[in-house]
Write a structure and sequence with these properties.
alpha+beta; GTP Cyclohydrolase I, domain 2; 2 domains; 9 helices; globular; binds zinc ion; GTP cyclohydrolase I activity; EC 3.5.4.16
């Protein structure tokens, strides 16, 4: 799915910015618009008590830099952001290397209610919830805790819920070559929740079904029943 079109994030920051052209604040004495139409005040940064206007983003940036430096953080390598996106540094091969076993088990394996925390790539705000995974092994099984690690690798990145769901399913398919895989993600998106009381309890549900879990309604039904109980 193309950037900016995620179902889970109905209006991205970029789209919203484009909907409000020319709404720069009135130029204060000596201010000038840069190439993007943002107004930059020369010299000292101005702080104002009300909501920031678009043209004050550079001032906000400076303010955040001051905070980061003030708490002893090196703004060049912000640790919190690194932690929240540490999934970029890890690969599925790293964690599954010695965790795949040959096993004569051909009944469905389900791990449900795996906690998931991620950041939406449109707004850089959290979305979080539960992931349910089921697969029907052919010969290979994986250590159960590794399924949670797979979720972590893909969720600790800037994400779109639909893509996260699919990436988890594809990673399991690639590693285990199972007869089928099902992944369901239920999440609350702070970018939706924070924009109105009516959306407080909204949850977004996405699913990816592959192999027999897609093709055979009976197998899919078994999975759906088991994750409900
Ligand atoms: Zn969002």
């Amino acid at each position: 799915q193309a950037l900016g079109q995620g179902m889970a994030c109905p209006s991205s920051f970029r789209q919203r910015s484009q909907q409000r052209p020319g709404k720069a604040p009135p130029a204060a004495g000596g201010s000038r618009a840069d190439a993007k139409g943002k107004v930059r005040a020369p010299g000292l940064v101005q702080y104002r008590l009300g909501a920031p206007e678009v043209g004050e983003l550079p001032a906000l940036e400076d303010a955040y830099l001051s905070i980061l430096k003030g708490v002893g953080e090196n703004p060049a390598t912000p640790k919190a952001m690194q932690f929240l996106t540490k999934g970029y540094q890890e690969t599925i091969e790293d964690i599954l290397n010695d965790a795949i076993f040959d096993e004569d088990h051909n009944e469905m394996v389900i791990v449900k209610d795996i906690d998931m925390f991620s950041l939406c790539e449109h707004h850089l705000v959290p979305f979080f919830g539960k992931v349910h995974i089921g697969y029907l092994p052919t010969k290979k099984v994986v250590g159960l805790s590794k399924l949670a690690r797979i979720v972590e690798i893909f969720s600790r990145r800037l994400q779109v819920q639909e893509r996260l769901t699919r990436q988890i399913a594809l990673a399991i398919t690639e590693a285990l070559k199972p007869a089928g895989v099902a992944v369901i993600v239920e999440a609350s998106h702070m970018c939706m929740v924070m924009r109105g009381v009516q959306k407080m309890n909204s949850r977004t549900v996405t699913s990816t079904m592959l192999g027999v879990l897609r093709e055979d309604p009976k197998t899919r039904g078994e999975f759906l029943t088991l994750i409900k109980n």
